[in-house]
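**User:** Once you have settled down, spend some time on the protein underneath, comparing sequence with structure tokens, and judge whether sequence predicts the tokens.
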Amino acid sequence: MAEETSADSSRQMRVDSALVRELAELLAANELSEIEVEDGDRKIRVKRELTVAAAPATMVAAAPVLATAPIAAPTEAAPVGDALPAGEAVKSPMVGTAYLSAEPGSKPFVGPGDTVREGDTLLIVEAMKVMNPILAPRAGKVVQVMVANAQPVEFDQPLVVIA
């Protein structure tokens, strides 16, 4: 939701849609619920409604540790089923949020079918406001991107499969 107010409400106000869009991107990128800027007698406020998932009321005893960790539930970018596609899975070295491109609206670093060289950036994992590039461990062809943009990821979760 974007609002624009003025000390003189009788005159027609022009909305700077590029500024509103930029503010909305800042809002999302910094996980804010509201941002407001003033320029003379013009004030622009961009606000978004956040939904919060309810936390469980009680703690449940932890299940015994398994010999192998289960693969995370498939996302819209992941294959259906439990098996990973053939190739080497590049896994997340940390808990964070995966970003497929350098900035909102820009082209993803890689996609299925792309050829990568060792050291190429595959995606970024943001952890504690630090952007950590995830690099290709070797040259090859991207078989599948296993996460969606802005998706939370866990430690050791498969991110990209390279053949």
Summary: The longest strand covers residues 121-127. Residues 17-29 form the longest helix (13 residues). Residues 14 and 21 are 15 Å apart (CA to CA).
